[in-house]
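Handout, section 4.2: multi-component inputs.
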Amino acid sequence: MSKKEEIILPNGVNKEDFLKAISEIEKIVGTKWVFKTKEDLDLYRDAYSPYWDELEEPIPSLAIAPKKVEEIQEIVRIANKYTLPIFPISTGKNLGYGSSAPNNRGDVVIDLKRMNKIIEVNDKRNYCILEPGVSYFDLYEYCEKNNLNVIMDIPDPGWGSPVGNSLDHGWGYTYGQYRDHFGAHCGMEVVLANGEVMRTAMGALPGSKTFAENKYGYGPYLDGLFSQSNFGIVTKMGFWMMPKPEHYTLAVLTVPKRDDLIPLVEIMNYLEDSSIIGWPLYRSPLNPEYGKPMNPELKSYLTSKNGKPDIDKIQDYAIRNDIPYWQIDIPVYGNKDSVEANINYIKQRFTKAIDGAKVKVIEDYDLPLTKKQAKSLKHKVTLGIPNLEIFWLSTRGENFGPKDGHVWFSPIIPRDGKELLKCQEIYIDTFHELGMESMITPFSHPRTWMYRAFCFMIGFANSRTDKEKNEQMRKVYTTMVKVAAKHGWGDYRAAPPFQDAVSGVYNFNNNILKRFTQELKDTIDPNGILAPGRGGIWPKRLRGDKNA
Amino acid sequence: MLKNMKTVLFVSVLAATSLLASNSTDYTKGKQVFDKWCVHCHGIGMPATNALRIVYKETNISPVLEQRKDLDAEFVKFIVRHGRYSMPFFRKTEINDEQLKNLALYLSTKNKK
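Output:
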């Protein structure tokens, strides 16, 4: 906030109306749950904001924490009366993609953390129904305390919200059908921009007994409208859960050559799409452990061919030092016999097709796990055990200074080895053209949560002290969006400052997708009060340049 | 006079006992806050502990928060509300002021008892 700025106002609202609105809202939720001091509002900044301390940084003018759906309905009615832009968050932990901050400076945050009821968990029909403030930690604790035989597919940070994560198209770590968190949801309750409550699919049938079991009910499927968008405030969602397996085995596949990735991916796709394996974690052992320096000889080969990597020398280094080029961790679920049979089949498939391929079992457990087993599990997320261990990637390493956070650039590319290698090349070229050290190497791996595509991510560091560094990062990010789009790759998710750029490249047929969603926006939310700009969708009154 | 003094003494002891009991309850509540919000990064072997191990490697300061003897209550409160490097700050709907006070009490007194 600039020193001259006494109070942040919502976009398009004068101070007098704003104060009236606050007074009316306080009557609905109680003064305790309306946050309006600078000290309290600073807690709604994005700790990983690429605009930290700049005038564009999205700091809210007000934050409201309702407890009930009826309170949200009233808030929405007041927002319409004063044209107050309101921005809902669930647990507010979408770090790297916006955290608990709104899209725009001055938007009013509706903090749904207090709406934290676990409405139902059914471990016979394998589903749950949750409010937005429930975290993965909360749900796990509930299931374990009640000895329920189900697991929720989870993302890396366990303090996130199943509702919020799925609405931002988050992904997880078990079987493909559960890893797609939005795809694994079933049924929604939404407060619309006019304050009415709508239930989708089976929920639209009063007294329905299958809210969280049958996705479609009758008629058009509307749920997709409420993800990465601004058409309503989701207050309940159902999710399909996975029954706990009887047995779990983690195998590790290694292959010696870079090009082995091509047949490897084809076989892995077959195994995954046949539900023989869970989430395959692709890595390259050529990468040093986090925070450790890269071997100097290997590092020298990253720029030894006219400033670009020398692939032959890198490959030769890997062979000489007996370092596999790729390593894939492969979890297998089932009963003991079926898991053993599948592991043998996996070994056979890879060793037959790829010279030098090796498959080794490193974890083999009956469930339930003992506490010791659960604690030492290599990938806790593959059995739905929430944690925050992923934050190793932003913490201080022996070779790195502390980071203030990260911002994800997350383009989707085909699940194809050749395409991944091409993508490495294009990114390396782009960094080269920008005159920067490349964050991508010829052994950078794909992310594999999306079970029908790869994501080839870059985690850009942001700063809370160095504005120039943030400006540079924003430039590189937006360049990358354009470069990726030119090659047919588009981001699946983005932090608010980049949502216009990302949605802007989804522009087939003169931006028909954007024009269609805008037409919907103007009809459903004529005052443009709900999360303006979220997902690149702006209401008429605020389009201006941002629609360019 | 003696009777009055005894009464005063009795009331004082009662108040001190009640204060101790209240502190003890707050301390336990503080540990609960730690277990809900902090231990996932600041527990043994967790990312923040590993990072602090590098920060404190030349000192006798423990990287494990629950083993620290030098933590000040106000410092704990400040870090929770302002964050530090990649640690984000926490909203009052996550850790309210009362819970934060208890957390600070827990971490600042745990190893001074």
